[in-house]
Amino acid sequence: MLKILPLLRNTLSPLYDERERNAIIEMLVEGVCGWTRNDYLMHRTDTLDADIRLRLMSCAVELAQGIPVQQVLGYAEFMGRKFKVNRDTLIPRPETAELVNWVINDIVQVFHSPVRSIVDIGTGSGCIAVTLALKFKDINISATDLSTAALKVAKANAESLGAKNIDFIHMDILKPEDDLNIHQDIHNPDETYSLSAPRYERHDIIVSNPPYVCESEAKDMSATVLDHEPHMALFVPDCDPLLFYRAIARYGKQHLNHRGVLYLEINENFGTEVRLLLDQSGYTDIIVRQDMYEKNRMVRAFIP
Residue 192: its pLDDT value, please? Predict the structure, then answer.
């Protein structure tokens, strides 16, 4: 192990600083060797099998090309579980876990009436929907996305993790409802079906991590993200940064039950604007919450 560590560090050096390199190497060793962090520290002086060394170097070559470590390994950790990810899905971030924890805490400790239906808009890898479905097996979860490729990944994650109470729906939240007549069935890509759920159902909770990065912010982002994660799940036009929040707010007004709740992950620069939008849309009890880095990253609002 001591011989291959310098090679790994040198391979990763052009793209990552020391802290990032060490974290990535630990993730690689865990993924390839099956070691925990403690195992890694205990076995650093061990001699690795040739096939393990080759696998680690192969992964390092991909990382040197800017491919995120989660895509190299084929999975990302999210709230203690491994979710399959690829170029069709965003890699789950810690702030999204904070949003999910907020939802879970409210369901368990705050709400007085039972929650029966949740819709996750823009599900991507399914990390939000699957986590909620596994926590609350008696709640019906609808996971929607415009990308059928992402929906297939989300469905695979639900199956591998044992989440059974989820429906996967192909839906474009930006299109008027009257235009949403025929949609591809991801269970059978050669067939189409008329969409009757979730758009025409009512829900107790809507949760969404929609695209919210302004196009002008791309210049400050790493090539690892820009070149390997789906832009349709990341960016909004500079001229309309609240594009998806306006659509989701409208959908919520039409399809949330009385005292239904909307949870959103937001761009840290638009907390005030999202709050105002929701207030003007008729939502009440609006809270903008900071993440662990003291950035405005989450919003909760109620339908009166």
Answer: 41
